[in-house]
Amino acid sequence: MAQLRVNGSERTVTAADETPLLYVLRGELGVMTPKFGCGLAQCGACSVLVDGEEVRACVTPVGSLAGKEVTTVDGLPARWARQRGLSPAPALHPVQQAWIDEQVPQCGICQFGMMIKVTELLEANPRPTDADIKQALTTSGPSPHLCRCGSYAAILEGAHRAARLMAEGAAG
Amino acid sequence: MTAVAHQSDTIAIHGAQLSGLSRRGFLGVAGTMAAVLAIKGGPAAAAAGSAAPSATTAAGWIEIRADNTVLLRTGKCDFGQSSIYTAYRQIVAEELCVPLAAMTEVVSGDTDRTPDGGGTFGLLRNAQNLRKVAALLREAALELASRRLGVARAALSVRDGILSGGGKAITYGELVRGEALQLTIPLSGDLTMPLGLRVEANPPLKPVKDYTIIGQPVPNPSLPPKIAGETVWVGDVKLPGMLHARVIHPETLGSTLIEPGRLDRVAFPGAQLVRLGHLLAVASPDEWEAVQAAQAVAAGTRWSDWQGLPDQADLPDQIRRSVAAEAAPPREGRANAGDPAQVRGAREHRARYAMPFQKHAPISPMVSLADYRPDGSVTLHTHSQNPQHLRRMIALMLGTGEDRVVVRTYPGAGHYGRSNGGSAGSEDEAVLLSRALGRPVRVQWMRHDDMQWSTQSSAMVADIRIALGGDGRISAYEATHSGPGMQDDRLIGAVLAGLPTIAPPSATTTYGFQSSLLAITDTWIYGTGAPLREIGKGCRHIGQQQSPHGAGLRNHSMRTPLQFQQNCPREIAITEAALLAGKDPLQFRLDHVPDPRFQALLIRLRDESGWTSRPSPAPGARATGQRVMRGQGLALMLRDNGYWACAAMVAVTPATGEVKVERITIVADVGIVINPLQLRRQIQAGCLMGVSQALFEEVPFDRGKVTATDWASYPILTMADMPELKVVIADNPGVTTYGQGSESANALAAPAIAGAVLDATGKPVRRIPLRPDLVLAALRA
């Protein structure tokens, strides 16, 4: 039984400690934006932030997260509001807004992980180059973030727009 | 509610019937005018006002409501390209002459709530149905307005949702308020066949020159809720009391079950083991318990051995032997003329080409939920491109009536054609497990299920001969394309469980694309002067006859099905013929394409791509050494009235066989562009998926099974491999047809890249993918 913070709320989890976070989020806690892709940390569809760092929920035992802060796409607007002292929180994080402005997704199933990874990047590097973005989405984590539809060109444009929106302090 | 006395008052509208007139004042302020369907003998007959709604009942395509909003229903589904939410709304709004904002609701893909059926593909071609229905509704509204306003029909026109003339005006909403109007439209076709139903009326269509909504960069309204996390994807559906199931498929494609593994009830107290013929499943209220218990049971399960697949290295020859042995009648290309075999060229190019099996490889594996109830009815929740045919196959499997089955669809991972015949996997298994367990059941395929037990894009080989005359022009062209038939829509769970399915692919199967014959689908574009013969020789799917289940490596259409496998060898061969002729491969094509749209496209491609006009190979081209060689290549495709050209610039390291795609330029002339914003995104994405197919993708298999189980064993393009990408949408306002969207973008990359490798090294690569080991083998040949 673990205690963790999920999108700003304290949650007590009854699942066994070795249960992967993804099954806890989707099954027990009803947090549905992290998607099941491979169960092998090979695609990034299930990515979440743990204390600001991108991890793969499908292979992360929930017991390892006691006392830590888990953020999914659902929690990005509140995270942005807290970072910038905005009240009330905007409806969307700038990364989400940029993804709509640039019409990034095709099917969209991979985009929750993409937005998490780009949020992690932009929190550390507010003005990334193309190479920085490609590096973040390919070699920086346990595997590349895969998009089967091939939306990579749109993702690149989305990430740059998100950086501009964050610099302007704007959100949706 | 409809008063019988009033039903006889109808008006004929260009072959449709408008009824429900004279009811003004009988109802409150609500009201609609709905397009309903009428087809004799078909299941949709129930749609036109049956007292007992069945699973096939749908109110119709389009409803205009008293508040001036419009709802449209389509049996097509969104697979990420947004066309049903963007292009379809634009097409209907344009014909109705209402603002796009009036198109407030799209109901899609539910068998009990949508009217037309058929597969989700060729969306803009299929949009002609909706376009006609919208035009019929507009014409009906003009008739009504003429009566209501007392103004001659000829004096009336529609703009921004207002019908006006003779100094008077009325909105659509005012026309239908308090009414229950029905416009009954004659149809042909079959709900469950690939092309679905077809509107048999020919109303006047709005002139293209008057378009104001088509051509606008309309954003996709399904994105904001997806990105905000509000959308319920198929994997997010939760049914009360449901169990999570994991299936255990046989060890090989032909294994039979000897003995199920033991389910440890101490370790997995909530889990249950179910056997359905040669299919096993473990179900539990807890998903993670189901995953672990299924892994444990699978490890202890004994299957028979089976080795009925050919050696992968022998696949091309096996295909040639199979088509010879089955000797099905070859299918002729539509442009065939003369006898090229009689023509001897001054120079001749002869070569063999091989296209691999490739996976659709959705990022999330298939997931479906079913609720089978004690009365024998079932509701299936899934992500399908053809829910009506899926419904029919589920009913066949259960031995029940189609009216007992409802299929509801949700957003899911794109799978690029895999379910255009209904099934992509897991749907039937959810239904069978719900029936067996008496509870709603959710079946989530794991990554290895999706890699090893789904269908795949078919392998194909081509034998091509091109004769060149003394003038360096093509004097004869002969191609034999050989391979297993395009698709197998059978439900694989039903096959393994030994339950009824549609007939396996053969030379005589009649459903849709379920066949062992091979059609020529790539349209010939290089002129009519020289003798031409293209034939397709088909065979049963690889391993189909050897497997005790009658199902081996099952094929299914993917993006440009068959056309990719035929166009790619043809375009590589044309590039090789240009080399033989000593011509620039772009100019060589320009010299042969008679269609001015292709001529304009090639000139545009030359300008936009930075093409260097010179013969191949590039000066200094080398097939050995560490030094990086650069080259250029191109490819053309004509598909569904869309004209496509692509140039690739590559860097090849001969010593390693590594190919890096540095730049891709695509120029598309699709005629009327419905939505340039969405089209651009579709082309960019399709092109990158095509680069992935070109460089990385081949389904590996051994004598019994697909050996790819994950993304390490079936790698796809990553963002780091992305080339610089330039998309040019050539505006062609003189063309009055809607060309198709992104599919062709997928197909162009492989032959363009192969042509560029030939240019860089002087060596042809006649096998896809252009993976280092295969490129190296070609460079050393």
TrEMBL record, chain A:
Query: Which Pfam family is one of those matched by this entry?
Result: Fer2
Q: Does the keyword Transmembrane apply?
A: no
Family annotation (PROSITE patterns): 2FE2S_FER_1, 2FE2S_FER_2
Task: Give the CDD domains listed for this entry.
Answer: fer2
Query: Which controlled-vocabulary keywords does the entry list?
Result: 2Fe-2S, Iron, Iron-sulfur, Metal-binding, Oxidoreductase
InterPro entries attached to this UniProt entry: 2Fe-2S-bd, 2Fe-2S-bd_dom_sf, 2Fe-2S_ferredoxin-like_sf, 2Fe-2S_ferredoxin-type, 2Fe2S_fd_BS, Beta-grasp_dom_sf, Diverse_Oxidoreductases
Q: Which GO terms describe its molecular function?
A: 2 iron, 2 sulfur cluster binding; metal ion binding; oxidoreductase activity
Give every 2Fe-2S ferredoxin-type domain span.
1-76
Q: Does the keyword Hydrolase apply?
A: no
Please give the name of this protein.
(2Fe-2S)-binding protein
Automatic annotation (TrEMBL), chain B:
Pfam families in the record, alphabetically? MoCoBD_1, MoCoBD_2
SMART domains in the record, alphabetically?
Answer: Ald_Xan_dh_C
Region of interest (Disordered), residue spans = 325-345
The Aldehyde oxidase/xanthine dehydrogenase a/b hammerhead domain sits at 228-310
SUPFAM superfamilies given in the database record: Molybdenum cofactor-binding domain (SSF56003)
The signal peptide here is none
PROSITE patterns per UniProt: TAT (PS51318)
Provide the GO MF annotations for this entry: oxidoreductase activity
Name this protein carries in UniProt: Xanthine dehydrogenase family protein molybdopterin-binding subunit
| Organism of provenance | Novosphingobium piscinae
